[in-house]
User: Fold these one by one.
Assistant:
Number 1:
Amino acid sequence: MALATEMPQDQHDAFDATQVTLPHLPNELWLQILEQVDDIYFLWGTVRLVSKDYKAFVDRVFVASFLPDISISLSLPRRDPKTGHLRYAQALPQSEMIFQCRRSIINSSDIFIETSATLPSGETMQQLNESGALSKQRLDEAQGWMWFGRQRGKGVNIASSKSVQWDEGSKAWTWTVRWEDLVNRYCGAKRASKQVQRGPRRDISVPLRLR
């Protein structure tokens, strides 16, 4: 059973991970404990900051358990979201393309993610690429929505410069990115989203009436 580790945002902000003294346990036992924590934001933004050892523990957990579950949806509207002007003449069978870690190609610094070779509608990426409907420029400019596992609703918009490449072998679009940068952007967007949800702090004052 996953541990309940969701921490309120105000406690996250006030929490000083460097002041935590954790019990001395065998490394493998700590890894097993951390693998049960389902709050990615807590692991990355709190536990990972405790010490170099815990940074190494958390990084190992991410590489083994979380990175293979990354999904990034690139939104592909035909019109410019800001001006409404038609930007891409050719329509696509769907308004997004999803990149996932479909192959276990993760080294010490990069993660390799890619689209599927065939869409649910039956069109192939090769057909869309050759027709010009889905170009590298269109994908590079697209906004991304990132989530882990099946929790798409808990994902966030990520600002990420990218350079996708066509892979002739897999007949799919691929993207190699530094995974620490990607997780940092995810957690930064999560933090900003939670701050917006909380809204500005309001001072509550009660008028004093003198008789």
Number 2:
Amino acid sequence: MSKPAAHGSIRRRLLLSLLAGAAVLAFVVYFVVQTVARQVAQESQDNVLAASAQSILDGARLSGGEVNVDLPYSALSMLDSISDERVFYAIHLEHEFLSGYADLPAPEGDPSGAPAFLSAEFLGEDVRIASVRRRVSTGAGRSYLKVSVAQTLSGQKLVLSRISRISITIGAGFFLISVFMAGIISGSAIRPLDRLTASVSRRGPKDLRPVAAPVPTEMVPLVASLNSFMRRLQQSLLRSEDFIAEAAHRVRTPLAIVRTKAEVIQRVSDDPETRKALKEMIHAIDDSSRTAGQLLDHAMVTFRLDHLVLEEINLLHLVHDTVERLRPTSELKDITMQAFGEQDSVIKGDPILVQNALHNLLDNAVKYSPAGSQIDVVLALNQNEAEVCVKDTGPGFPADELDSLPKRFVRGKNAEAVVGSGLGLTIAKEVITAHGGTLKISNNPGGGACVSLLFPLP
């Protein structure tokens, strides 16, 4: 049985889609954790820097129209307590430098007094700077006093690096858990399809009942189409079976009627030419009838082999029944037909096909055996086989054609004068092969043919 060409896998596509979603979510988790951690760290540092700058600004005093600034110990100690960062500061009155690091970059202060922040590079290090200012009155008028405090970012970078590693671990763990869950989910999603496949695969060749098992909504159209196909197939098979039976009846009956009338006319006719023509006509009718019959038999055999249903067969009973069916035909040629076999043997097979195969072998034996001869049908049991052997006293088989005779429409060189179609051994070969057995063709030592059907025993 040929398999349809596979184009991708639903399970793989679903799994890859879930994994792609998991990878995106893992990246989002990493990005969110990184962003939040960076914002929290920066806000924390900004708050401390702003508080330190504000503390310095609050300690500024006016004395004699001049600004005096004392650096409170707490203003810078709160920065030292956070980490081992370096701290810088600068105090300006308008554009006049008062104290600290003169070249320390500083953001423009907010006129409202709110802290302003800036990230910059100072003395070869990245720093975060906070500036606050307020208006003061001096001898020269009202001016802005601005205090800037800066702190290096190396400690913050270390913290963010640790948080980054933790974020990667969390993202990787989330992804690994997602891989496990994706495998479970994809297997669960595809399981109804597996159950449907198993349900259909377990059916016999003639089991064309509609699939009634509950399926997910997405599979309802597929199951409905499958049920519709099986219904059409069942109707087609029934029509084919009826056609074969009807064709056999309609072909054989008219030919039999024509043959009977030709024989009647032959008996009453006194004209030698007419009798000769009628004889040739009867021979042609026999040939046509046999060929048509065996073609229809072969069609029936092919049909049943495609839908083979095995059941127990009592081979001894089948042999005796087939012999009795052909006994009237053999007696017309004064041929004695006997069946031998005392032990019952049971095989697994299609009784109609097995009987048809044996019928063709016996029909060939009757056709090729001379009048007054004998045909023996012997049933014997071997170790693992049951053998049905048909022996006749006809011309036998050409020794150089034994391998080719079971082929379709092939006949022996010594059988050209006998009516036949070359399908009898073909049918027997196809039937026995379908049942796991062997067709054996040979010649009897004393003359005649010996054809055996070897069936495996269950």
Number 3:
Amino acid sequence: MGTVLLFPFFIIILIVMMFSAGDSNCDVSENDVSVSTQNETTSQLASSTDPFKSGTLANKNAKYVFDSFIHNGVTGAYAAGIVGWVNSEGGFSMIGRAEGHFGNDLNTNSLSKGVLPSVMSGYPIGKSGRAEGGGGIFQFTPFSKFAPLGSSDWENAEKQVNFVIKSISGGDWNASMDLSGGRHSFQEAVKLTDPKKSSLTWQAYERGSVAHINQNQKQADAQRFFDLFDGAKYSYNANKFQKAFGNSVNNTNNVSVSSSDDSDSFNSCDDSISVSGSWASDGSGEVHYRDLNAWRPNELPKNLKQYAIDPKSVGLSYRNNKGWDVIAWSGGQCTDLSASLMNAIWNKKGSKPVQKKGNGSDVVFHWARFFGGKISKKPKAGSVFSQTSTSAGGVFGHTGVVSHVFANGDILVVEQNFADFSGEHRGFGKYTWNYRYVTKGAISSGYTFYDPSQSGYQISPKLKTVA
């Protein structure tokens, strides 16, 4: 009950490059890293789509991205890993490709020609004010965050790559999503010497639906590019990397926790996360995260702590059942955290609400039925949420508690049983929780909320944040 898989959204996969000076035996000079643009017609594209065939358009674009990484000091294995991952995302045969379009005709498949992504519903809200799919080499999502529809920038690889520089340099990297098993920071990842392992670290940037990621294909492509582009020649160059990225990649978003140290790190978590701080008002705060950003308690970025309610402040223990007074199932499902936390944070004249009926997708319905009031599409801090099975990607849907609503309408939630961040779904353990960022666009696709204050309940004064 309450099991949830990662969302079935195709999220962007981005890669990084910056240009810097430096000398070594295997340098790629600025002259070698030439600007790649695309204006081929249908017939030309049809014969240029194989990235592993020397001289094709796709091959040239792939080599351009590879060289850009090398020029910034990363290993050849890492550069090949990124190119291998991207090959099955936006790809290299059409650099302005709109998501969901798979043809070879620029006029009917490229954002530069005014072609919209065929998949829009449920995606993040773009500058248009509506949900937008992805586009480009790296499938920027929503597409308008890179360039408007019809812009010639969609046919300029240099501008697309440079756009990525800003994102990674700004710390847009969630090491807890790394699929390689190492939870590498970005600075650690660029030193890897295995192209297959390198490719899997890029889920820390893309953060897409694991169910829709063909990890074997990405690893195989990474190895092929490594061999094709002589990746073994290129070692990590600290000077070039520091010139390109400085220390900007070492921030609170770059969480490095070895997968073999989960137990130790959570003992540390219990000691280090204090119960203090005040709860910020809804509609406040500006942070910049995407859907599928999730964190275990000890991995929560500093700029989110003031918005993250702490279940321990109202008596719930971490990794044992103390304070978990309302168990809906086994103690390790999403419904268990939802029921126990709602029971702990709400109060009416000394009475606590007890509601533990329903699968994740049904929880909000049963709250409204038992306590009265309306189900809402608008989140509010302290509200319980339900997520449909279609939205959550599982049979039973999902549930949790809203921690904060940001100024832009995005929310931070606390939950259990999301991927391998907490709960029993992937064997992490009972009586645990994680935090997750949900965008306004995702909320509109399958989320409902219930606020007990409409039935006379009030938030417990004991409830604090982890700030």
